[in-house]
Amino acid sequence: MSDEIFDVVDDRDRVIGRQTRREVHARGLKHRAVHVLVFNPRGEVFLQKRSFKKDSFPGAWDSSASGHLDSGETYDACSVREAREEIGLVLERTPKRLFKIDACAQTGQEFVWVYRVESSGPFRLNLDELECGAFFKADHINRWMAERPRDFADSFRLVWQYYLNPPPPKAKPTLAVKATPVKLAKPSPKPTPRKPKTNPPAKAKVAKQAKTSARPSAKPSAKKPAAKKHQAKPAKPPVKAVKAGKRIVKR
After folding, report:
1. What is the pLDDT of residues 194-235, one digit of tens each?
2. How far is it, in rounded angstroms, from Cα 148 to Cα 33?
3. How far is CA 213 from CA 201, 206, 217, 220, in A?
4. Residue 31, strand partner residues
5. 3-state secondary structure of 115
6. Are 36 and 64 in contact (CB under 8 A)?
């Protein structure tokens, strides 16, 4: 076991190096692992009792199958391999992913992907890896874990807690784009537009014409009457004699 080589990862689960199993555990370096939960049709989960030869949590109850990723191995490939190597369960496809747990003290600084499989066995147990195994109801595990938590491996207690209360999916981080300031050229001053000559509105023009026509026109120059030629005054009509009695009155 001590000669196994693991990928060492950073806080974001990115590979930054390689170390032996012994060195990774001794220095508390972050690395990768998987846990597989196998459920039968009745909803019971299969738990294994870890071998007493294990270097961590010997004899403790743990997930159906679990293990570290080899250097260069993917999580999905490891889940299929560990199910086959520990309990003899051959999977034709990658099991369903449930959730991922970030590296922390309770997982032994492992980033853990947890998988779910539907199977009722029979299983072929690897006695170099585990002592025994059995199916348990969820309620039984909850009571057992509450009364005797040290009967279980630390990592499995966290896995079971996440299984009962799944964490919300993490939002993908958005890349912050730094805006480059753009220097705008000053706009050139616009020439002042000349006001076009506009003819007065037809209405105003008509009013002007009406005003003009209303003005009194100049009096036509009267022709001076031609000088009258000297004419002889007409002779007075002859006095008509009216007979009024005996007197004659001139009229």
Report:
1. 665 555 555 555 445 545 555 555 454 445 555 555 555 555
2. 25
3. 18, 10, 8, 16
4. 110
5. strand
6. yes
Other Cβ atoms within 10 Å of 6 Cβ, number:
24
In CATH terms, 5-164 corresponds, of 3.90.79.10, 3.30.310.10, 2.60.120.10, 3.40.50.2300, to 3.90.79.10
For the chain, the domains span 5-164
Q: How many CB atoms lie within 10 A of CB 5?
A: 13
Question: Cβ neighbours of residue 76 under 8 Å, at least 6 residues apart?
Answer: 94
Query: Which two tokens mark 5?
Result: 């080589």
What digits encode the pLDDT tens for the residues 146-193?
Answer: 999 999 999 999 999 999 998 776 666 565 556 555 565 565 666 666
Please state whether 43 falls in left (phi above 0), alpha (psi between -120 and 50) or beta.
left
Q: Indicate the pTM of the whole model.
A: 0.67
Among the residues of 2-137, which ranges form H helices? 21-27, 75-87
Give dist(CA 176, CA 178) in Å, integer.
6
